[in-house]
Amino acid sequence: MSLTLVSFNICPYVLRVIAALNHLKIPYEIKYIDLQNKPDWFVKASPLEKVPILFVDETVLFKSLVILDYINTLSVQSLLPNDNLQRALNRARAEFSGEIIGTFWNVFSAKTEDSFKNNLADLKWYFEKLEGWLQQSKFIFSNELTLADFAYAPIFTLLSALKPQLKFNLFEGFPRLQEYNENILSLPGVQQSKVENYDQLIQERFAKGAPFFLTL
Where is the GST C-terminal domain (predicted)? Predict the structure, then answer.
């Protein structure tokens, strides 16, 4: 069986999958495409014409959390609880991360002060929820690393890339979230999930649109 992951170089959702594949030591190949010039084979293979998709031999999986669920089954070291209800709760907390990624993108691409402030307030609302969960355990679900934690990896890799340009501390008032951020970024699988010039590419991506946060 062969695994081929398809994405573009700064896709936040593919980082989840790469980090988990690396952590579980599952062999895979990766192909990066240009979303502005999608190859025909990708358009045919991806039902939503979005990345990431995972070729499992000739079968195509899409949606990053679905891909995470699948690759977890390939490892003897499962990252999910045994209890069905707890597994569902783990997936629910993983899904929550998608809301944060979308809001994060809105914060750092906002063109006006009002838009920036409104989206930042939304982001901090999500952070309050995370802080509450993290008051109860080291990781997002328990004291052990689980599949849900990899769903949050893109948030912290994005923040780390933008840190040189930030004039404010997003984690102010969220000490457990700050610690969680450091724990996730320290994982070898997460460190190895980025392309070599990832930070530069992220900074250039946001600078192009002249977002409000760069004027602070």
Answer: 83-212
Check pLDDT > 70 for residue 214: no
Distance between CA atoms of residues 214 and 141, nearest Å: 34
Residue 179 to residue 198: CA distance in whole angstroms: 23
Work out whether the CA dihedral 153, 156, 160, 161 comes out positive or negative: positive
Cα gap 143→139, rounded to integer Å: 5
Compute the distance between CA of residue 33 and CA of residue 36 in angstroms, rounded to an integer: 9
Q: Is 54 helix (H, G, I), strand (E, B) or coil?
A: strand
Backbone region of residue 109 per phi and psi (left: phi > 0; alpha: psi in -120 to 50; beta: other values): alpha
Give yes or no for a contact between 45 and 55, defined as CB atoms under 8 angstroms apart. Answer: yes
Please tell me whether residues 59 and 99 are part of one structural domain.
no
Whether this model's pTM surpasses 0.85: yes
The string of pLDDT tens digits covering residues 22-75 is: 999 999 999 999 989 999 999 999 999 999 999 999 999 999 999 999 999 999
Which residue in 57, 16, 56, 14 sits closest to 32, CA to CA? 14
Number of domains in the chain: 2
Whether 5 shows a pLDDT value over 60: the answer reads yes
Tally of CA atoms within 13 A in the half-sphere of 24 that contains its CB = 26
